[in-house]
Amino acid sequence: MEKEILTLEEAAELFNVSVKTFIKLLKEEKVPARKIGREWRFSRKALIEWLSTGESQYYSASEADPKEYYNKVAHNWEDIRKDYYDESIKNHLLNLGILKKDKTVMDLGSGNGYISIAVAKHVKEVIAVDISKEMIKELKKNARINSIKNIQTIQSDDIDIPVEDEAVDVVCANMYLHHKEQPKLAIKEIGRVLKPGGIIFLSDFYEHKDLELKEKMHDIWLGFNSEKIKEWFLNCGFTDIEITTIKQNEKKSSKNLKAKIFALTAIKKH
Fold this sequence. Notes:
Layout: E1 5-6, H1 8-15, H2 19-28, E2 34-36, E3 39-43, H3 44-52, H4 58-73, H5 77-82, H6 88-94, E4 104-108, H7 116-120, E5 125-130, H8 133-145, E6 151-155, E7 168-174, H9 183-193, E8 194-205, H10 211-216, H11 226-235, E9 238-246, H12 250-253, E10 261-268
Parallel strand pairs: 4-5, 4-7, 5-6, 7-8
Antiparallel strand pairs: 1-3, 2-3, 8-10, 9-10
């Protein structure tokens, strides 16, 4: 039987947000709650009913948090990013031999162009998709600096990618999946936009316990179990699934290397 009276931490877990975000909701909205002394208490039933009334702006508020964060840090993202992963991911991608001059590549969660800029000169076209308009501005600036003209950008914060079915040859998703509440649906959507025989390159964290990283980066998932992620890709119509551990230069990025990184490649079945 589910617990009816919840603590602050349990209520935040029910909403699938951090305690910090939930406290923000308490300040901004009329969340049904009682304060006993210095402790908050919440009724599970009341919270669910409150959400169902449509009076809450919870979904828009909570979903805005990652967008707001990445808009704010876009100008400094290159320095922030280096604390969590170095050039090893894109170097691994470039060495796989999956990028060809006649191919169209989609870069999901493109950020300021870490992947897009690296692959653009090796392919026909790059479609860069990101939640943050400021990140896209940085990407465009970086493309101009590098004299790159074959990157198309799309701002989208929906799991549904705004392109036609079977539109691209390769999808790259670097540090993308752990931001999705339902990763398997995100993988299905990747399969939709890939041509038959198309390739997914996905890089992300292995399962970890770094709550500080999760909180700071507005992650939903604490990385992924390699067997579980293989199962998801198999169930979504992919084959030839391979997972490789990415070895980073720890001298340059050891500050926050509690979470190890993997790269996955898979082929969409014909």
